[in-house]
Amino acid sequence: MDSQAKRVETISARLDAAGSSTDSVEDELELSAVRHRPEGLEQLEALTRFNRKELQILYRGFKNECPSGVVNEDTFKDIYSQFFPQGDASKYAHFLFNAFDTNKDGSVSFEDFVMGLSILLRGSVQEKLNWAFNLYDINKDGYITKEEMLDIMKAIYDMMGKCTYPLVKDDTPRQHVELFFQKMDKNKDGVVTIDEFIDCCQNDENIMRSMQLFENVI
Amino acid sequence: MAAGVATWLPFARAAAVGWLPLAQKTMPKPPVDKKSRSDEILFVNVSGLRFQTWKNTLDRYPDTLLGSSEKEFFYNEETQEYFFDRDPEMFRHILNFFRTGKLHYPRHECIQAFEEELAFYGIIPEIIGDCCMEEYRDRKKENQERLAEDTEAENAGDAPLPPGATLRERLWRAFENPHTSTMALVFYYVTGFFIAVSVIANVVETVPCRPIKGSIKDLPCGEKFSVAFFCMDTACVLIFSFEYLMRLYAAPSRCDFARSVMSVIDVVAILPFYIGLVMPENEEVSGAFVTLRVFRVFRIFKFSRHSQGLRILGCTLQSCASELGFLLFSLTMAVIIFATVMFYAEKGTKGTNFTSIPASFWYTIVTMTTLGYGDMVPDSIAGKIFGSICSLSGVLVIALPVPVIVSNFSRIYHQNQRADKMRAQQKVRQARIRMAKKGATNAFLQHKEDGGLQDGDSGSTALCVKNRSAFEHQHHHLLHCLEKTTNHEFTDEVTYSEVCMTDSVGFRTSRSTSLSSQQGATTSCCSRRAKRRAIRLANSTVSVSRGSVQELDTLHITKTPAGTQYPQSRSSLNARTEDLKLNCDDYTAAIISIPTPPANTPDESLPNSPAIPGILRNSRSNTYNIQETVKISSL
């Protein structure tokens, strides 16, 4: 979104003012001193479906954890892995990170975070399905191929870890992917488009019902 | 889990929307959050301490948190104030920066805490005032060194080898870390012994022994017992060659190894022997050969593999190279100056020793280092005056660089001490962290066993389920959703290994321990282990709250002793591992005895779980939850 005017402070500005710097020192410092401040409360209120109080609460928590104002992928993976101690959540966290990092700059700022949450928690079913499709479509080309789905599926099964019942066999993710494609791929062309996906999900009662589940998270 | 992580839980739950289209089963209902997430009562204060300042003061630096609109996020309308949940002591320095324009570094604070505060308020550390910059830099460097040591200690070769290690890798590890296996240790000591033997033999060789009968001249022992010494030398060289070849074979990078200092020393130690074998019995060449024997004394440097102190010394000399260079240079300068002066001063004297300037070098060096052999002394008055000036200045020039070298040595020595201590404590630390992590998993499994996952009426849920916090409810719901998505369940390690073994029998040992006892097909050992697991799960519920994301600062431990075997006191986490090893006898004793709860249980003591079938369930009816808060210091 263009309205996100991200103001990034770098040491180079200060050093220029101080009047002495070398290029390599600048580069090194630039990497470590990026600070990010989000848009004002009013803009965020307009952009998302949260009210002022909720935004305040969200920001305080976010800022506490990431004082610099942005989350990079490693921190993201760390945080997400804390919720799944038995398995390895890093791959799924990687996909999640890409889904949240809408402007593809390698870090999730508060705006990205809160807009993602707004879709997931307060969005319409269409928007949520859109978001899920975006998550599965790893290369963002508008089609979910079997390989992409397999990657996602393996990442999800990795989160379970190895101590499961019944045991996760090597082809369990693949079988799950086959099931998914049987259900979703209407014209059997080997890829799932966004329309097929949304159509199929809207016709599935279970999925529609479960979409209401997470609305009272905040 | 840390509370910092608790703030991310809503995000993790929201992200679970990504699983919904893939789920094979229906998702469970989320827990109802009865008390709404109310706003924390925000005080204006920074954690209780009130600060007041002009708005202009804050506006002076518009690119910080306090100077920009970012602080609106922290505004509390009711009390008309801004509230920050941060360290009030540190905030004082931050606010002073706004007031005076100079940022000071408080010497008694931890450098990392200070940097974190600066990052939070959007202030870069580089603008620390000149008065405090030195201290800040020094502390920061020290901290980084210490952290680098930590990671080094973690990556130290003490970690067990991967199972697929080749012979080469194993050999190399045995050479580099002798204390890892007995064979390596034996080899280490044997080589050390032979180095000592070789050096002593070299020394004794030259001592004069009593002459053989019929001769008057004193012979050195080397020639008297030449065969014996030759045999000893050969044996030593053979061992050293063998060791060198083995190291060369096992080294991961042979070129690097061949260029390393230790390998050069090894080669130099054994080469004279081989050259001596090859050399013909020629008169003039054997003169050179005798010189070569001098290099045998370098074998003593092989001891540096065995002695850490020697390595530290070498390291010190390396790091003090510049100081040593300076010492050498200044000495040389002084020697030349004084030698010249002495030569010209003594030129007039008859029969003087100071025949040339280079000849005076010897006098100057001997005088400057305060040795004073007395083989060369000045006679003329001018010579004596300059001689005394020479000896005084010698003391000064030598004394100056020495403290620098000493302090370097002390720093490196202490670093080594610290690294050793860190390595020793590391294992304990990791064990504790692992234990706490396992607790989180076990909490979920325990929750399942307690039947907390039925989407049913509240009447049948056991009381222990109701007593969990909202956070735990939501976290368990999240894990449950993942189970439903993948159509697999979480279990613990014992079940996993059992299921692996008894793959053909597919009875579920995780859930109904009661069922397993009733089934005839169960072997007795499985049921015993199932009982053991039930107790283990009951005992190891650990829930953590309020801490930082990266490390666990404090842990709240919920203990459920199932018998009088367990110490009721606030035992450390380490004691738990012993507690968890049960055998059947303890177990039966647990069934019989009904322990009384200690008088200081603050809250819920779980009564018997109602109406749960199965023999084994009754045992757990004797368990109860005691909540004890054990504060473990920051790891």
Please summarize what this structure is:
The complex is a heterodimer of chains A (218) and B (635). Chain A is mainly alpha-helical and 218 residues long. Helix content of chain A is 59%, strand content 9%.
CA-based gyration radius of chain B: 38 Å
Shape of chain A: globular
The CATH class assignment of the domain at 177-306 in chain B is: Mainly Alpha
Helix percent band of chain B? 55-70%
Shape of chain B: flat
Question: Uncertain segments of chain B of ≥5 residues (pLDDT<50)?
Answer: 35-43, 455-462, 506-635
Rounded to the nearest angstrom, the distance between the terminal CA atoms of chain A is: 24 Å
Structural class of chain B: mainly alpha
> Helical element count of chain A?
12
Strand order of the largest sheet of chain A: 1-2
Poorly predicted sequence stretches spanning 5 or more consecutive residues of chain A: 1-15, 17-22
Structural class of chain A: mainly alpha
Number of helices in the DSSP assignment of chain B: 26
The profile of the biggest β sheet of chain A is:
2 strands, antiparallel
Measured by residues with Cβ under 8 Å of the partner chain's Cβ, the largest interface is: A-B, 74 and 76 residues
How widely separated are the two ends of chain B? Answer: 15 Å
CATH superfamily descriptor of the domain at 177-306 in chain B = Voltage-gated potassium channels. Chain C
Overall mean pLDDT of chain B: 72
Enter the CATH topology name of the domain at 177-306 in chain B.
Four Helix Bundle (Hemerythrin (Met), subunit A)
Oligomeric state of this protein: heterodimer
Detailed description of the structure:
The complex is a heterodimer of chains A (218) and B (635). The N terminus of chain A is likely disordered. Chain A contains twelve helices and seven strands. In chain A, helix 8 crosses helix 11. Chain A is mostly helical. The longest helix of chain A has 15 residues. Chain B is mainly alpha-helical. Among the domains of chain B are: 116 residues, Potassium Channel Kv1.1, Chain A (2-Layer Sandwich), CATH 3.30.710.10; 130 residues, Up-down Bundle (Four Helix Bundle (Hemerythrin (Met), subunit A)); 118 residues, Helix Hairpins, CATH 1.10.287. In chain B, 56% of the residues lie in helices and 3% in strands. Chain B has 26 helices and eight strands. A three-stranded antiparallel beta sheet of chain B has the order 6-7-8. In chain B, strands 1-2 form a two-stranded antiparallel ribbon. Chain B is flat, with a radius of gyration of 38 Å. At the A-B interface, helix 4, helix 5, helix 7, helix 8 and helix 9 of A face helix 2, helix 5, helix 18, helix 20 and strand 5 of B. Strand 6 of chain A pairs antiparallel with strand 5 of chain B, so a sheet runs across the interface.
